[in-house]
Task: inverse folding
């Protein structure tokens, strides 16, 4: 069991990788949120994304950027580009052909940025979209994108235990749409996104976790980023925001509804580089 109290900790400075939505579009459908007939306002997407980047900077975090690539409209969702733990980079291997080039693009970025311990993955995995890193364990999902075999691969390479969870609701196709780390030892999740067995695992490991409602989940409120104290989340997730405030967290609501048309939110835009020497 993972002890979690207190919920709100001192904020820890983070280093994030983001990708400007210069070529953002909804041109194909690889999750139920994506309807190519709806049309996106790219300028608005860029404005919303910039506001998120500025917020991270105001909160004291460092933001690095990977250059967007024309023809890769989902590349704004940098969280899927890899998984970085203790400076080791486990590369991504996308489930869909449309996003496949994003994996090597991220690995090249890491190489150029001076990361030497990188791993090209054998198994399909969509980076931090399906892995949530905590102090003692890494939670990992399978069911829609990432293969369970990738959990083993990550565990061996990153040298941290990985717990496999099964996602069952297609609206919540990545782990980071259904669960986020409030601190290194505390999580928030929407139980119905998981199989009965996985709900038992989560309940046994995190008896003090915060359980989110369907309303919170349906606006991608679980696709949030916390530094231990500050929580950045979708403006529409008002119920969850109130609960977090009552626990002592500083809540920072952001408008990202343009990117939500592709099924992504705050966390999807944010890949944490766990290498900042504080
Ligand atoms: N359209 C993208 C996809 O379906 C959205 C990815 C969102 N990223 C995330 N980390 N959940 O792949």
Result:
């Amino acid at each position: 069991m993972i002890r979690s109290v207190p919920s709100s900790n001192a904020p820890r400075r983070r280093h994030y990788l983001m990708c400007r939505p210069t070529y953002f579009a909804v041109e194909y459908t690889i999750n139920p949120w994506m309807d190519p007939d709806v049309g996106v306002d790219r300028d608005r997407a860029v404005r919303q994304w910039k506001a998120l980047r500025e917020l991270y900077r105001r909160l004291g975090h460092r933001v690095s950027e990977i250059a967007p690539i024309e023809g890769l409209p989902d590349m704004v969702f940098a969280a899927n580009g890899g998984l970085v733990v203790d400076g080791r980079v486990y590369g991504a291997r996308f489930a869909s052909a449309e996003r496949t080039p994003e994996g090597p693009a991220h690995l090249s970025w890491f190489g150029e940025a001076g990361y030497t311990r990188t791993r090209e993955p054998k198994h399909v995995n969509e980076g931090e979209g399906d892995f949530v890193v905590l102090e003692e364990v890494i939670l990992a999902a399978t069911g829609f994108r990432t293969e369970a075999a990738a959990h083993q691969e990550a565990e061996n390479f990153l040298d941290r235990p990985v717990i496999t969870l099964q996602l069952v609701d297609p609206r919540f196709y990545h782990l980071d749409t259904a669960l986020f780390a409030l601190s290194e030892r505390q999580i928030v999740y929407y139980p119905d996104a998981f199989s009965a067995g996985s709900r038992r695992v989560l309940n046994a490991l995190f008896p003090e976790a915060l359980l989110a409602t369907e309303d919170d989940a349906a606006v991608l409120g679980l696709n949030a980023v916390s530094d231990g104290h500050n929580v950045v989340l979708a403006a529409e997730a008002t119920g969850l925001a109130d609960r977090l405030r009552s626990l002592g967290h500083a809540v920072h609501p952001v408008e990202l509804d343009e990117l939500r048309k592709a099924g992504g939110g705050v966390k999807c835009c944010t890949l944490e580089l766990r290498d900042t020497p504080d």
The CA atoms of residues 16 and 272 lie 5 Å apart. Residues 30-31, 34, 74, 77, 79-80, 99, 129, 174, 176-177, 262-264, 268 surround arginine (CB under 6 Å).
